[in-house]
Specification:
Mean pLDDT: 75
Distance between the termini: 46 Å
Number of helices: 9
Number of strands: 2
Structural class: mainly alpha
Low-confidence stretches: none
Strand order of the largest sheet: 1-2
Radius of gyration: 21 Å
Shape: elongated
Largest sheet: 2 strands, antiparallel
Helix content: 40-55%
Strand content: 5-15%
Order of helices and strands: HHHHHHEEHHH
Length: 181
């Protein structure tokens, strides 16, 4: 494990916990971990600890995320000359009016809600996919939070340090604020 930035006292204790806990050094054994059945068939190995990144990595992810969205937003103009019929045919959309409305809103500088999936490799950040939709998924976010907080070594650290944690979905928070207004 490479630590190349200063952390808080709690961060140092967490880092030491990870270094000295052998379970943190290997992927989760789905057969030995209390997971829902649908996660036992998950196609990606999971690690026992969430990844901690510093401010420089946050900026790198932000730049990559926003840059990727800007590139994708240029596809209708560069490849299809903003022709809704060509886009509809190419992607085999069943509702061409949705494509036409989307192109019209793009003329007014719409922003795109997206979730980008990246991996960080020894040669740098790699984009896996860009999800742009009104229904972005994120179905597993509460699961991962619960898994790390309650089941894996992170829970041992939280209990040892007497830490309490909470989680709320940003959309639920937004809707609650909207209802209050």
């Amino acid at each position: 494990m490479l630590i190349n930035h200063e952390t808080s006292s709690l961060g140092e204790q967490y880092t030491n916990f990870i270094k000295t806990n052998e379970q943190c050094h290997f992927p989760v054994d789905f057969a030995k971990t209390n997971l829902p059945e649908y996660m036992r068939r998950y196609h990606v190995e999971l690690q026992h600890i969430p990844v901690l990144i510093d401010e420089a990595k946050v900026k790198e992810f932000h730049l990559a995320s926003s840059g990727l969205v800007e590139i994708v937003k240029k596809i209708p103009k560069l490849i299809f000359n903003n022709n809704a019929d060509d886009i509809t045919k190419f992607y085999q959309y069943k509702r061409p009016e949705v494509v036409k409305h989307t192109l019209m809103s793009a003329q007014y500088g719409n922003t795109t809600l997206s979730r980008n999936d990246f991996i960080y490799t020894s040669s740098g950040l790699k984009a896996l996919e860009l999800n742009c939709s009104a229904t972005l998924g994120g179905w597993n976010i509460p699961f991962f939070f619960d898994m790390y907080r309650n089941q894996l070594p992170v829970s041992q650290f939280s209990n040892k340090m007497n830490l309490n944690s909470a989680f709320s979905l940003p959309l639920c928070f937004f809707l609650n604020v909207l209802l209050i207004l």
